[in-house]
Amino acid sequence: MKRDSFSGRFGIIAAAAGSAIGLGNIWRFPYLCGQNGGAAFVLVYLFCIILIGLPIMLAEFSIGRRAQSNAYRAFRILSPGRPWYLIGVLGIVAAFAILSFYSAVGGWTIEYIFRSISGGISSNPTEQFESFTTDSYLPLLHQFLFLALSLGIVMIGVKKGIERSSKILMPLLLVLLIVLCIRAVTLPGASEGLKFLLKPDFSKLTGDSILLAMGQAFFSLSLGMGCLITYGSYVRRNEDLTSAAGMIAGADTLIALLAGVAIFPAAAAFHIEPDSGPGLVFITLPGMFRQMAGGMIFSTFFFILLCIAALTSAISLLEVVVSFCVEEMHLRRGRATALVAVCVFLPGALCSLSLGIVPGLQLFGKSFFDLMDFTSSNLLLPVGGFFISIYAGWILKKHITVRELTSYGAKKFSCLRVFFFLIRYLVPAAILVVFISGLIRN
Q1: What per-residue confidence (pLDDT) applies to 148?
Q2: CA–CA separation, 222 vs 230, rounded Å?
C-alpha cells in the first residue's frame, strides 16, 4: 500500500510547526518567563532551542524519512533484531498519555470560546472555572467535541487532512496572535510589560531557571514522543530537512515570543503579576478581558487561538498512534482513528473527572490528571529523547544520517560535525540533567 506524504515544504513546516506549537507556547512559556527574569529566560531558552532542540529534531526527521514508517517500525527497519524499537513504543505510549489529558484541556478552550461569544465571562473567574471543571458532564462533552474535531482531520489523511488543515490553521493562529499583540501594546501602561519581556533581569536567573528553559525547549518542539519521526516518514526524499527544521523551530519560538508580547503588556496594564502560573489562561486572563474595552471580542480571539494551538498538537499526537494501528494492525485509517479516539477518551475522561466530581481518583498522591501529565512530561519524553540522541549519535550508521541531512547529496549541510558533536555528547548529557532534576523537584 502506497504511503501518503506531504505535498511540499510548506505543508511539512505547517504540520510540524502545528505539532510543536501548542498550549505550552501560549501560556506556559510566558508564565515561565514571568518567574525567571523575563528576557533573561528568553535568552537561555533560545540557546537551548539551538543546541538541544534542533539536533534532536533533525535526528527524528532523519530516522522517520529513512525508514518511511511509523515510530515503532522505523527502529525495526533500521536496526532489525535489536531492542531499539522500544524507543518507538515509548513514543507511542507518551503520545497516547499526553493526548488523554491534553484533550481535556482542549475541551476547556471550546467552553471558553462559547462563554466569550455569549458574554458569559463571570466577575468571579476563579469560581466560574472551578464550577465548570467540577460539573458532572460539561467537561466531558467539550472534551468529546475537541476529540471529534481532531478525529475528523486525521481520518481524512495526511495530505488532505493534516496538511490542508495545518495550512489554514497555522496562518490563522499567527494572524489572531498578531491582532492580540497590537491590542495589548496599545493599552495604557503596556510599556512596562514590554520592558519586562525585552530587558533581561539576570538576578532572577538561577540554576533551576536554566533547567526549566531546557525542559521548555525540549517539550515545546514535540521531541521524544514519536511525532517528528512519524511526520518525517511523510517527507519526500528531495525535501531539505535542515532548512525545514530551522523554520519549524523558528516558528515555534516566534509564537512563544508573540504570546509574551500579547500577555505581558496587557497584564501590566491591568496590574496583574506576570507569574500568575497555571491559572493565567482560564482565570487571570478572562478577568482581564472582562475589564478591557472590546474585551468580549478579544477574549473570543484569544480562546480560538488557544483552541487552534491545542488542536494542531492533538492532531500530531493522534497521528502517531493512528499510523501505528494502520501499519502494524492493518486497520483502515478511518477505523483506526475512531478506535484510537475512543481509547483516548476513556483515560481522558478520568483525567477530567479527577479534577471535579471524583477528586478521590488519585494515585501516588496526585490526581489522575496530574499523574498523566507528570508521567509523560517528566518521565516518558526525557527518556525517549535521551535514547533517540544515543541511537542517532552512536547506533545508526553515520552515512545514513548524512544522506538524510544532505537529501542524498543534493543539499549542503555545513554543520555536520557540529551536529554529531551535539547529538553524541551535549544533548544526552543535557537531557539527563533535566530528567534527574525534574524527578528531584517533584
Answers
A1: 93
A2: 12
Report d(CA 255, CA 22) in Å as an integer: 10
**Cα–Cα distances in angstroms (integers) from residue 400 to residues 62, 65, 403, in the given order:** 8, 11, 5
Phi, psi of 325, deg, nearest 5: -65, -40
> What tens digit of pLDDT does each residue of 43-79 get?
999 998 999 999 999 999 999 999 999 999 999 999 9
What CA–CA distance (Å, rounded) separates 140 from 170?
Answer: 27
Q: What per-residue string of b and e applies to 235-257 under the rule 16 or more CB within 10 Å gives b? A: beeebbbbebbbbbbebbbebbb
Q: Does domain 9-441 have CATH number 3.30.450.20?
A: no
pLDDT in tens, 126-141: 788 888 888 878 999 9
Q: Which of 202, 206, 218 is nearest to 50 (CA)?
A: 218
CA dihedral 183, 258, 177, 182 (to 10 degrees): 20
Three-state DSSP at 205 gives coil
CA distances from 132 to 135, 252, 263, 303 (A): 5, 31, 24, 16
Helix crossing, 85-118 with 71-78: angle to 10°? 160
Q: At what angle do helices 54-67 and 381-390 cross, to 10 degrees?
A: 70
Say which residues have a Cβ less than 8 Å from residue 257's Cβ, sequence separation at least 6.
42, 197
Nine-digit cell string for 375:
508521567
Higher pLDDT, 197 or 425: 425
Question: In sequence order, what are the beta bridge partners of 38?
Answer: 200
User: How buried is residue 79: exposed, middle or buried, by Cβ count under 10 Å (0-12/13-18/19+)?
Assistant: middle
Give the single-character DSSP code of 300: H
Residue found by looking up cell 476547556 in the block? 108
